[in-house]
């Protein structure tokens, strides 16, 4: 059977495309740390202070000098003089000497002289002003040392790090209520096709609502980019040319859907080719779904032409748009996507030489997760909407057998 396109393996296609782009100039903006979830650091963050800022107890009990408890046991307790109670939120105004103890609460500041804390459960009050200790502690026991988390001037977050909940907590612990974040790259999303109408329209026979603009905008945003919709362009070269020109002028990169294949109305590749140098770098990727994918660069701006079928468009956007956004954000490369190991619940056939991405549902079984393939068609959006993840069948396999160990990349 003749093939319209020359197909390139996906990894090679991505490398060719990324190589043809200029080094990204990552914009920097200072944003409130409280709103920085999912954002990428544009500069390394150094700690202005030590954390914890002072030695703290990790338990409720008595601050002591470890030496004072030496040899203490159930049968031979150590008797220590009670010299005070550490207030929470303030420095204790006293010291603890040999043979002395002070009441301390979890998180309280160790008094001068104390080097450890005996847990409340291992003590007993015998007489007023005195406690009995039933177990010896070692120096440093039940104590967080000053600077144990981070030291002054230490790099706590590198450049290009995606901020998660813990990182935001860490920034707050240091009083860093603002952070330098990479500006979100702006994607211009263009849909094309005479049959495609906005989703708020009633459809006439032959028409379909625009799935791709919204699904792709959501995907771009989930990767840390910003998306602006450039509407639905009819199947006319001059209309697509004008829309692409405006998109290239305004956005950091352009995502066009449909018109990627081989029919007379498939204009995307030709229009990209004439809209800037070097134009189209890849047209056709050895992957299913998404074979007619187009990767281009127009005068420094990346352009991707995704297949019109919504499942293909989204799967391909994960393979190509996601790494593009990461690069434009200056994100540290090579971070894995969330995935779970599973056993395949059915045989899956695949063509040798082609990489296949199959939507699967995950089912919990006694020994772990079972991945149940969804027999999708690339136009049927709910075959992807009902999936929990994707399984990759590598190009050197002619399929995977029931029971095969697979990795499910979570959607
Ligand atoms: N003779 C061949 N025909 C096709 C081949 C092939 O190799 N030889 N490849 C098929 C594959 S695979 C794909 S994928 C599609 C690619 O199509 P295009 O990118 O050219 O897109 P269209 O033909 O315009 O649309 C395909 C399909 O998707 C629907 N569509 C388009 N845009 C949207 C949108 N924004 N929202 C929802 N649905 C959309 C469109 O109505 C079509 O049903 O080509 C195959 N054909
Ligand atoms: O590549 Mo098409 O995307 O298989 O449906």
TrEMBL record:
Pfam families, alphabetized: MoCF_biosynth, MoeA_C, MoeA_N
Name of the protein in its database record: Molybdopterin molybdenumtransferase
UniProt function note: Catalyzes the insertion of molybdate into adenylated molybdopterin with the concomitant release of AMP.
Keyword Manganese assigned: no
Necessary cofactors: Mg(2+)
Entries under NCBIfam families matching the protein: Glp_gephyrin, molyb_syn
Recorded GO MF terms: metal ion binding; molybdopterin molybdotransferase activity
Pathway the protein takes part in: Cofactor biosynthesis; molybdopterin biosynthesis
Source species of the chain: Levilinea saccharolytica
EC number: 2.10.1.1
SUPFAM superfamilies in the cross-refs: MoeA C-terminal domain-like, MoeA N-terminal region -like, Molybdenum cofactor biosynthesis proteins
Domain MoaB/Mog: 188-327
Family to which the UniProt record says this protein belongs: Belongs to the MoeA family.
InterPro entries: MoaB/Mog-like_dom_sf, MoaB/Mog_dom, MoCF_biosynth_CS, MoeA-like, MoeA_C_domain_IV, MoeA_C_domain_IV_sf, MoeA_linker/N, MoeA_linker/N_sf
PROSITE patterns, per the entry: MOCF_BIOSYNTHESIS_2
Key words, A-Z: Magnesium, Metal-binding, Molybdenum, Molybdenum cofactor biosynthesis, Transferase
One GO process term, biological-process aspect: Mo-molybdopterin cofactor biosynthetic process
A cellular component annotation (GO) from this entry: cytoplasm
């Amino acid at each position: 059977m003749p093939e319209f396109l020359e197909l390139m393996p996906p990894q090679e296609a991505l490398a060719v495309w990324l190589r043809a782009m200029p080094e990204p100039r990552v914009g920097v903006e200072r944003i409130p740390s409280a709103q920085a979830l999912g954002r990428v650091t544009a500069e390394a963050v150094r700690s202005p202070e030590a954390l914890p800022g002072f030695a703290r107890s990790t338990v409720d009990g008595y601050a002591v000098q470890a030496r004072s408890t030496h040899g203490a046991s159930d049968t031979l307790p150590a008797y220590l003089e009670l010299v005070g109670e550490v207030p929470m939120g303030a420095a204790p105004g006293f010291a603890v000497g040999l043979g002395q103890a002070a009441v301390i609460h979890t998180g309280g500041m160790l008094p001068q002289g104390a080097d450890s804390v005996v847990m409340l459960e291992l003590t007993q009050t015998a007489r007023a002003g005195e406690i009995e200790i039933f177990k010896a502690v070692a120096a440093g026991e039940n104590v967080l040392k000053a600077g144990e988390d981070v030291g002054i001037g230490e790099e706590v977050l590198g450049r290009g790090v995606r901020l998660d909940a813990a990182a935001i907590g860490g920034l707050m612990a240091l009083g860093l209520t603002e952070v330098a974040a990479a500006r979100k790259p702006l994607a211009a999303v263009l849909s094309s096709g005479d049959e495609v109408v906005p989703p708020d329209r009633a459809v006439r026979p032959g028409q379909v609502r625009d799935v791709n603009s919204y699904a792709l905008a959501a995907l771009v945003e989930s990767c840390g980019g910003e998306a602006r919709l450039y509407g639905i362009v009819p199947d006319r070269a001059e209309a697509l040319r004008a829309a692409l020109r405006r998109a290239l002028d305004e956005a950091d990169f352009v995502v066009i859907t449909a018109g990627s294949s081989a029919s007379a109305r498939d204009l995307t590749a030709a229009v990209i080719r004439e809209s800037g140098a070097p134009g189209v770098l890849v047209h056709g990727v050895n992957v299913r779904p998404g074979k007619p994918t187009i990767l281009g660069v127009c005068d420094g701006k990346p352009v991707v032409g995704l297949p019109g079928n919504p499942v293909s468009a989204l799967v391909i956007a994960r393979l190509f748009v996601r790494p593009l956004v990461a690069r434009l954000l200056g994100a540290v490369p090579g971070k894995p996507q969330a995935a779970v190991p599973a056993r395949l619940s059915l045989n899956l056939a695949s063509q040798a030489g082609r990489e296949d991405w199959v939507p699967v549902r995950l089912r919990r079984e006694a020994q772990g997760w079972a991945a149940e393939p969804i027999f999708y068609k690339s136009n049927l959006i709910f075959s992807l909407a009902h999936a929990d993840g994707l399984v990759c069948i590598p190009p050197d396999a002619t399929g995977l057998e029931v029971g095969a160990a697979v990795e499910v990349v979570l959607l």
